Automatic annotation (TrEMBL):
Organism: Drosophila ananassae (Fruit fly)
PANTHER family: GH07914P
The name this protein goes by in its record: Uncharacterized protein
InterPro entries registered for this protein in UniProt: Haemolymph_juvenile_hormone-bd, To_sf
Keywords assigned: Signal
Signal peptide: 1-20
Length: 259
């Protein structure tokens, strides 16, 4: 059985359910879109239960999590308790067409609302012009991402290490966020300061995402995600990939998870 990271990477490959211009097809391509659609629905169905090493993802709950970021310019240590993330299984595939007919895989995926609930305790300092400004925050986290949307496309070519295997080329993705709804409460702050920061963040977060976008796509995906996916695909033919999705989908369906 695949590890969780393999399944999640495959789920990302699996988001390719739409397409555009005709190119040469590998044997099995005609089944790619239908096996994908089935796999995604089956994956959604196990999210409330978890499956063989895949944790429960709907909701995703982390009882306690500690972190520590230290550099010359800042030190931030803290922890997050009772984090609960809701809505990961609420995704909608907004468009779908047949990869087998066109050879360009494209996807348009929407999460209408992802809700984060929890509490955090953070301590540290930021160095601003040689002055160490202390940070102390105890907060109740209650924030939501509204209409988080991923629109992307890619194609398959032969692997460079195995001509019978696959690799992903021409990967492009944009991420859109319609809004955030912050209702965090820093218990060390009064109500008006909390309201002020929630308003600032509601306005700023979607803009920050837009600013970060070219860096995100280029760096994270091109350097990290795609090479990892291509390593996984190197010795896998299209027919085997389709078969793998069908087999996993069948196993997920057999788990018969009732939310
Ligand atoms: C983290 O959690 C523990 C309680 O488990 C607490 O004692 C500690 O002060 C917390 N805060 C930070 C900033 O580490
Ligand atoms: C809330 O705190 C801020 C910053 O410390 C202060 O300027 C403001 O007057 C306070 N407001 C109330 C209503 O206490
Ligand atoms: C693909 O096969 C080659 C040759 O057998 C091997 O060296 C490589 O590790 C394999 N890659 C994967 C991801 O299994
Ligand atoms: C290359 O990929 C094919 C297709 O999946 C596979 O059957 C074969 O074992 C791979 N070759 C090597 C050397 O791993």
């Amino acid at each position: 059985m695949a590890s969780i990271s393999q399944v999640l990477l495959l789920a990302i490959v699996g988001l390719s359910v739409t397409s555009a211009t005709p190119v040469v097809q590998q044997p099995g391509s005609a089944q790619f879109t239908s096996s994908m659609t089935r796999f995604l629905e089956a994956f959604r169905s196990i999210m409330p239960c978890g499956f063989n090493g895949i944790p429960v993802l709907a909701p995703l709950e982390t009882p306690f999590y500690e972190f520590e970021y230290i550099s010359d310019d800042y030190t931030v240590v803290g922890n997050v308790s009772n984090m609960r993330i809701e809505g990961l299984d609420g995704f909608q595939v907004l468009s779908a067409s047949d990869y087998g007919k066109t050879g360009e895989a494209a996807y348009d995926l929407l999460f209408p609302k992802i809700q984060f609930l929890g509490s955090s305790d953070v301590e540290g300092f930021i160095n601003i012009g040689g002055i160490k400004v202390p940070i102390r925050q105890k907060a109740v986290i209650n924030e939501a991402l509204i209409d988080l949307r991923f629109v992307g496309s890619y194609s398959f070519a032969n692997s460079q290490t195995n001509s019978s295997g696959l690799r992903i080329i021409d990967f492009q993705q944009s991420v859109y966020l319609a809004g955030v709804r912050m209702d965090n409460r820093n218990t060390l702050w009064n109500i008006s300061t909390n309201n002020f920061w929630n308003r600032v963040m509601n306005t700023y977060a979607p803009l920050a995402l837009q600013e970060m976008q070219p860096g995100l796509t280029n760096f994270l995906y091109q350097n990290y995600m795609i090479p990892k996916i291509n390593d996984l695909l190197a010795n896998v033919s299209m027919a085997e990939l389709v078969d793998y999705y069908q087999t996993l989908a069948q196993a997920f369906e057999n788990a018969n998870c009732k939310a």
